[in-house]
Design brief:
By secondary structure, this protein is α+β, with helices and mostly antiparallel strands. 33% of the residues lie in helices and 23% in strands. It binds (3R)-3-hydroxy-3-methyl-5-(phosphonooxy)pentanoic acid. (3R)-3-hydroxy-3-methyl-5-(phosphonooxy)pentanoic acid (PMV) binds next to loops.
Length: 359
């Protein structure tokens, strides 16, 4: 695996002080990544819709100092210093140090905030780590202005992946593949790439309403969850199936067959949860209201001849996916029916987005 291209070749003039602000979104996988090997390499390829409204905005102010043995940073989340978030970010900096040796020359002050409510059960690692990765790459570009935009985006995804696998899919949009796959030109285990084929117009501006069924702390951390796949009795078949599903999804995204899209997306969500139901130890991450919502969605789909469907992350919240043409009808259904199964009736209306934006 060739990671040498991500190690800077030149050590340039240092800059006294500089700061960058980047906004990067969350994403929702259509074909799921669950299972990895070191260093953060996926056991199967995955594809996601990049979201738009659920994002993190991060500013990093860099000021030069004597080179330190490890990254030196302060971390503020929503204006407050967050010591408890620091170990994860310190681990991330350690992992990217060889690719970004310049970070050791700076004191970094990181200010971050999410557009979605804190501990809403929405994974913030994808948006959070991709935002930091973008800020690091802008510093690298300031130090070496010859870097191309293509390289910056690719390396930002590469760095983000080392923080959280799914974060590699949050730099670009609207559809990103991560993981080497024979049917996806240019795909890699090292970074995410934009889905390289023409997408059917029905998927333009696709809608995602995130229903906040359970806003508590994650019951199973991603690290623990991925590790459960190491000795999982169904792991090898699952990885094979996911890669086959990505081939199918690639066709569907091009031909616009929504019925097949719905079948595949829902099956992927339930399979992800099936992996957790059948691991040792086992977990049930759905709540009774998750199931209530799924059944309501199925009833609505049949009664209204709708293309609404659901997907799930590793938690109880439900992502409701539907074409833009059904937005009004489905939003009314969510407000009048599905919101009743959400904590404090909370949900977030989102849609596909286009990735990192300068803040
Ligand atoms: O990026 P991680 O390590 O938090 O893993 C996330 C995995 C899922 O969100 C459950 C699925 C996916 O592909 O995003």
């Amino acid at each position: 695996m060739n990671t040498a291209e991500f190690i800077p070749k030149i050590r340039s003039e240092k800059i006294e002080e500089i700061g960058f602000t980047w906004q990067t979104p969350s994403n929702i996988a259509l074909v799921k990544y669950w299972g990895k090997s070191d260093p953060q390499l996926p056991k199967n390829a995955s594809i996601s819709f990049t979201l738009n409204n659920c994002h993190t905005i991060t500013t990093i102010d860099f000021s030069i100092q004597e080179s330190a043995p490890c990254a030196d940073f302060d971390l503020f989340f929503e204006g407050k210093e967050k010591e408890e978030f620091k170990p994860k970010i310190a681990g991330f900096f350690k992992r990217v140090e060889v690719y970004c040796p310049y970070i050791l020359d700076y004191k970094m002050v990181i200010n971050s905030e999410n557009s979605f409510p804190h501990s809403s059960g929405i994974a913030s690692s994808a948006s959070g780590l991709s935002a930091i990765a973008m800020c690091l790459m802008r510093l690298e570009q300031a130090l070496n202005p010859r870097l191309t935009e293509v390289y910056i985006i690719k390396k930002a995804s590469f760095l983000a992946r080392l923080g959280s696998g799914s974060a590699s899919r949050s730099i670009e949009g609207p559809l990103v593949v991560w993981g080497k796959h024979p049917k996806i030109a240019g795909s890699s285990d090292l970074f995410g790439v934009q889905f390289p084929y023409k997408v059917h117009p029905v998927f333009q501006n696709y809608q995602d309403a995130i229903l906040l069924v359970d806003k508590g702390e994650k019951q199973v951390s991603s690290t623990l969850g991925h590790n459960l796949m190491h000795k999982h009795p169904f792991a090898e078949n699952r990885f094979k199936q996911a890669n086959e599903n990505l081939s199918k999804m690639s066709e569907i995204l091009q031909n616009g067959h929504l019925e097949e899209f719905i079948g595949l997306v829902e099956s992927e969500a339930l399979t992800l949860h099936a992996m957790m139901l059948t691991s040792a130890p086992y977990f049930i991450l759905m709540k009774p209201n998750t199931l209530e919502i799924i059944h309501k969605i199925w009833e609505f789909r049949a009664a209204e001849n709708s293309n609404i469907c659901f997907t799930l992350d590793a938690g109880a919240n439900v992502h409701v996916l539907y074409p833009f043409s059904e937005k009004e009808k489905v939003n009314r259904f969510i407000e009048s029916e599905l919101a009743n199964y959400c904590q404090k009736k909370q949900y977030i209306l989102d849609a596909v987005g286009f990735g990192a934006k300068k803040g």
